[in-house]
Amino acid sequence: MDLLHQLDPLLQQFVGTLLLSFLVGLEYHRYMREKGHLGYGTTRTLTLFGLFGFVLAALDQQRGGWLLPAGLLILAAYLGLYYLLQLRQQQRSLIGPLVGLLVFLIGPVMLHFPVWTWLLYVIVIILLLGQKPQIRSFSDLVPNEELVTLAKFLLMAGVVLPLLPDREIAPWVPVTWYQLWLAVVVVSGFSYLSYLAQTWLFPRRGLLLSGLLGGLYSSTATTWVLARRLRGGGDPLQVAAALVLATAMMYPRLLVIVGLMAPEVAYRLWLPFGLFAAISIGYGWLLARRSPHSGNPEGQGRVSHPLELSTALLFAGLFVLFSALTHLAVQYWGVAGLHKLAFLAGLSDVDPFVLSVLSGDYAIDRTLVVSAIVIASGSNDLLKGGYALALGGWRLRWAALWLIGLCGASVGWVFWLPL
Q: Where along the chain do its domains lie?
């Protein structure tokens, strides 16, 4: 090891480029043999490409920086001619030319970037060459709409979010544009992960599992869907259990979202939310045990994508609305006004209100923030209890009464127990 450290760094990088280019050349040669021809060269050709790029990059450190671009253009022209010859033979693969260019850049990457960068660079090239059947199988398995959905999320999180200014939207909306979109990204990301779990990990989920996973996505939407499903037949106790489990999952979901925005608030919420989630899971299990059916029927079917533009804009609109209303409530009505607003907000969608309270610059302490979130979650339980009775009738009374009871417990916790 001492001898290795005593070697000239340029010599180490030269040897590294030689070995890594040779490894990629071996993998490319194997790849081309499977196709029945050698392409534009063998392992030696790609090794020379790598050394060519290294020498030009090393010379450019002393000669003004034009040799490497010139060499890259020459190599690209050569590989372009090779691709044109391929087209005449009805072979349209760009893998060969692209691998040649990537190997040419191994030397420059090694000279200018840390060790982990060029190791990862070469590993990715080798894996992409060696895993062609697996990549093709995965491509056939994943529908195009799933890739579009992933692209939407990357656009929201990686492109739009960094571009937004960190200044307040308006004097009466004490949150910034960045905080607004960050809230959209957090909620959408959590819903997206739940969607992926429902779609790919548990495609044939039963009714109870549908309630659990649906609660991570949206307990309100899941309650609506499952309660309506009872109209077409089914076991009321199984549906009631699924509704209770969906609400049980709302609490850890809110804890994670709040924890990402304000960890100190999440720490003060874990006791009430943890207790409500635990007893709801236990009650849901008891309802399922009372059911005469031993197995779970199928769940609610395929869920919709959570990253529709209209959904994101609606969430953003509600976020701005609740931010403005929270500002007015705190300014003119104080604690009582915020509590009333929290109760009303929970009767629509709890997430925008919770995140608006966490993101805004209000003249309130953390205790008031915690109490407002607990009240909003409780009124959302009341809304879901109303959905259960309105859509499922008296047959869902056991779920509806439990949800209404959770509302009462949430309000009582705020006024009679310390937060």
A: 2-140, 143-416
